[in-house]
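Researcher: Going back to the complex we discussed earlier. I've cleaned up the inputs and rechecked each line, so this should be the final set. Can you rerun the prediction on the complete assembly and write out the structure?
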Amino acid sequence: MTQHLTREQIAECLISGAGASAHANECAACRAEMARFESALTEFRGAVRHFSGLAGRSSSPVGSQIVWTTTPARGMYSGNEIKAGMSSLLVNAALVTLLLIVGMAKPVEQTLTKIIFLTAPDLRTLKPKPETTKGGGSGAQNSEATKGKLPKSAPRQFMPPVQPIDQPKLSLNPTILAPDLPNISSQTYGDPLGAVGLPSSGLGPGSGIGPGKGPGFGPGDRGGFGGDVYRPGGGVTAPIALIKPEPEYSEEARKSKWQGSVTLQIVVDEAGFPKNIQVTKPLGMGLDEKAKEAVMKWRFKPGMKDGKPVPVIATIEVNFRLL
Amino acid sequence: MDRNLVSEAAMPEETCSEGIADFDSLVDLHRPRIFRFILASLRDPETAENLTQDCFVKAYKARAQFRGESRLGTWLMQIAANLVRDHHNSGRFKFWRRSLRSHVDLNDACDWVPDQQRSPEAIASAKEQVRAIWNAAADLSERQRTVFLLRFVEDMELLEIAAVTGMKEGTVKAHLFRALQAVRAKLEEPK
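Model: Rerun complete. Updated structure for the full complex:
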């Protein structure tokens, strides 16, 4: 028995369509192999023909007469391509020529070459507007703050007490950044202790009430009352000293056995540091300076207003006693 | 065998050359084959319809040049093969080929298997085979696909294929051989 057919030989048989070779006629394995491949190709042929029949049927239904026109397809211009192209060229050429002729005409050229000088206006005579700094006070009005009720105090100022405003877009009660202060009942906003007059919120350029630059009441450029700081009371808690190093005795006072107490006024800032230490009741003998030095090292829990730390003014008495 | 093939094969040579005169019947006779070949080559029924139409328009215009050296079917198939090649080389086809590969093929080959009251297993296996060959044919080069389709779908002789494609018989054979190898490799590929 001869060798089995190789793949190449099987392919050869299928290509030439000569049918199985002598070996294949004898060998069942080779015959089966060929038949398998051939049947796959036959399936493929059947499938393609079936599909083609389906696709062809969709465009030309079976049973109806196929109308087949054998008129040769014509171009878009029905044979007028050259004519259309030439006329288009002529129209375009005419337009370009016209533009060139107009452009080269003397009056047009003169107009185009005419130089017009543009003089920049001198702006030096106009002084820049003075910048209004938003800070504490009252938007720099013409008079002192007149008598009126203080606006409510709030942790943030959205609406400064400027008066009067005609038909605001979104009406908000004006507020100032200050502790709750004794207030009066009035139609207008102003200083409860101010003079009666035309409504004004004071001379200060800020958004508060009074002469300051800030959004508070009174002088100063931040919130609060009467300066930049709050005072304990009216919703403001007093600062609590956490670290209190003892003051040293001055040599001079020790020798002369000098005793007593120094009263200091400080501002405890939001971080709990003492600021602006001022001696309100001095003792002398260098003890005032020693007291200041000691208080400088003190650390506080800052005073709070509405849960937020605020700078609060505090008074401290430092006692000096000799044992 | 297909009715059209029978009728064309039965048609004597001299009638073929005279058939030009009766162009409508010529179209009726050859349209299914031409359409099938173009459809299988391009896999787009709409383009196949257009190119089939183009093929007959070209044939109508050039009917005077037909010398009657080959059969009318071969001549028409030659025009169709040229059209397919031109379309293949045009950028438009490249785009569609890309989109066909990247998207799900709507004309999935396995849907075409005719249901001839066979068992579901037989149909399933036939579908598998058809899909494998269809995918293999998609990966063939344009020349290989053309000769493969002409030989195994249109049942054309090697000499006839040589006449249609303008290649020598040996070249046709070599292309067919490579095409068959590729198809067979795909058929035996484990799923």
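Model: Worth noting: Chain A touches chain B through 33 residues (CB under 8 Å).
Researcher: Good, that matches what I expected from the previous run.
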